[in-house]
Amino acid sequence: SYVIDNQALVTPVLSQMQASNIGTTITELSSFTNRFYTTTGGSDASNWLKQKWAGMATGRADIAVTQFTHSGYNQKSVILTITGTDNPSEVIVLGGHLDSTVGSGTGETSRAPGADDDASGIASMTEVLRSMIANGYKPRRTIKMIGYAAEEVGLRGSQAIAQNFKANNVNVVGVMQLDMTNYKGSANDIYIYTDYTDSLQNDFVAKLITTYQPTLTIGYDRCGYGCSDHASWTAQGYYASMPFETTMSQSNRYIHTVNDTFANAGGQANHSLKFARLAASFAIELGSDGA
Ligand SMILES: N[C@H](Cc1ccc(I)cc1)C(=O)NO
Ligand SMILES: [Zn+2]
Ligand SMILES: [Zn+2]
Fold this sequence. Notes:
Elements (H helix, E strand, L loop, with lengths): L6 H10 L2 H12 L9 H17 L6 E6 L8 E6 L4 E11 L17 H20 L6 E8 L7 H12 L3 E7 L12 E4 L5 H14 L5 E4 L8 H6 L4 E2 L1 E2 L25 H18 L4
Parallel strand pairs: 3-4, 3-5, 5-8, 6-7
Antiparallel strand pairs: 1-2, 2-4, 6-9
The structure holds para-iodo-D-phenylalanine hydroxamic acid and zinc ion (2 copies).
The site of one zinc ion has 4 residues, from loops.
């Protein structure tokens, strides 16, 4: 339910999260020549993320990391699963995309750092994972963190996964998309997008921000189209939310260019930390509910 009553579990995880760790992961992901869905870099980045998450989960028998193979291109999505202790059939999904692009002509040697779009989202999720593990947090429901392949070419990775989950009757109770979290281009801190998302869940997201990050300011906007992977989940009838870094009109103009770098977002991840903390509070509040 959307009742906020797990402060004892959420607060220690949030307080341990650090922008510097997010910045490190953004830098690592940006160092692949590109992470395009059909290139060597795209496959290497997927394998790198799998290894990174698996390494972090060492010693946790309830955490598994797999890759989801897509048809028609080599880049695999990465799925980390924290199996719930006593209500495992109900699933919470945190997502971001691991591919990067400099447009349709992206090839093997194209330079596409994709620091904000969307290394920042993957890095935010990674810091959630690190702090949950450091605090020994074990959810009652299952939490999945997904690095989607092929978002930039039509939300293809998330579409395949959301369709697969629907076909298998996976009971996903909520989805949060993190795509572009580190470019502070607008007045407010977090913008809750209201199209291709669920309005009730969006109200819960706003309450999470006012409860756990009361100094942050909230804005609202719309994309006007299916602008990221949340739209794939909504299309399958699941509840999705997308907290975004700016208003639509002030969105990061460096994306999909060689200039989408960590330095061009200020060389620090203070903005991403807000989204990482929001994602952690979302996953823990929903993840701590029993059957
Ligand atoms: N189109 C999206 C970027 C994007 C998403 C939302 C808004 I507002 C502006 C721009 C993309 O490239 N996702 O990877
Ligand atoms: Zn993009
Ligand atoms: Zn993106």
